[in-house]
Structures are given as C-alpha cells and as structure tokens.
Target: Stealth protein CR2 conserved region 2 domain-containing protein
Amino acid sequence: IEWSTMNIPGLSEVYLSFCDDFSIQQPLDISSIWRDNEHVLYEAGRAPYFRENASGEYGISIAYVYNLFNRRYGRVYYRHVASHVPILLNRTIMNKIRIEWKDEFDEMFRNKPFRTEHDMQFQFTYQQYIRHHYPFVMASEPHVHFVGAKNDEEKNIKTFEKVLNRPHQFLCLQDDFKEEPSDVIVKQIHDFYEEVYPYEAAWELDATGIVRIKTKSVYEIVMEWFGRGKKRGERWRLAMEKKGGKRQQG
Model:
C-alpha cells in the first residue's frame, strides 16, 4: 500500500504518511519532521541482518533490504528499523528508490497483496535511502509510545497510565489479543482514547454517519484542541476510582 500512495491523483510532492495505527499525543510542528533543510528520522532497535535472527516474514524482509543496501553502499553493521511513527515522504525520492531497485520492486508487486520475505519494507527502505543520499538528523528520545493492548484489564491499566502520565510526540497502540477481546476490554480501550482525545475532531462522523464540516482549518482546530485547559477523561478517572486506583501526578 505504502509504495502505491505516490500514485494517488492530486497528491502533493511532499506529504506526511499515516499508513499505520499512529496517532499524535503532543502538538506536531514542522520541526518534528523537517529541520534546517534536513530530514528528521525516527529510529528504534537494531534491524536483523541475518534472516536466521529475524522473526516472521516482516523481520525477514527487513534483513532482505538490509543486505540489498549493504551490497549497494558497503557494509553497515548497525542499521536500525524505523519507529512506528508517521513519516514525511517525497514522491521524487520514492520514485528514485523504485527505479534503483526495479527488479526487486517488480517481484514484490507480483506477490501483492500478500506480505513476503522479499518485500521492500517501506519505512526501513525509505529511511535507509535517506541516510545514504540526503542530509538528516535523528529525532530525540523518547518520541513514541509503542504499546500493545492485551485481553487483561489490570495490565492495560498500567500500560495506559504510563502513556497518559508521560505523553510523547506519537502514540502507536496495537492489539496483542490471542482471542476475541471481552466487552470490558473494548470499553477500556474506548475510554482510554476518550482520555487522550476528549474533543470531537472536525472530520468526525456524527451518529448518522455524516461528517460535520467546520469553517476553521484542520491546523486551527488541532492547535485549539491542544491549547484547551479543561479537565480531561472523566470516564477514565471514574473507572480508576471504582477499581481503587489513583492517577499519578506529574
């Protein structure tokens, strides 16, 4: 999907991609993604170099791209995977990558829509290419909460409290369910998001499924939302009090 977004009609030359379960916890300004004519790169742990050390097709595809780049640019021992955050993309750069590894992309697209061990894994490929061809700066740590919701109410409380007490620039909440979550867990996740995002967005659907268009720009609405000083998340606090928990301060 990610490599095909560049073909969307009318898409700008440079755009911010949210092609995953990302969200923003703190105000996002241009310096978070582009600083002094340099790309801002968000990286996490070391990427697997040997496929034997990789986990699943996703991990093996990372090792596959790792080795492609080492053969092209020389051995680099410590490449890192991209963090689970939005990424600033340039269509010209994406096209250069696709041309440079045309055979590999042709093979990948023949296998779509299925993930394979020979995928040109999107964020890892893009950021490694930036490292070899363009000026960049590394984002400061910590910059993202990358957490998994479980089918365990007590564990979720600890996870969600950590996120709420120490907000980072980005939030990536994924499910870690081995079975269908209970109604209690679903409500718990719903209440958590109500705490993080207590105000309706301009593009939210109402009860009838209609988007309520407002006259303000998205930027104005988002900055106004972050600037509000009202108490947030009453439902979450009530749930915590009911369970005998107390929200930490600071």
In short: The helical segments are 56-73, 91-100, 102-111, 122-133, 153-165, 183-196, 218-227, 234-242. Residues 228-233, 245-250 have pLDDT under 50 and may be disordered. The CA atoms of residues 28 and 234 lie 25 Å apart.
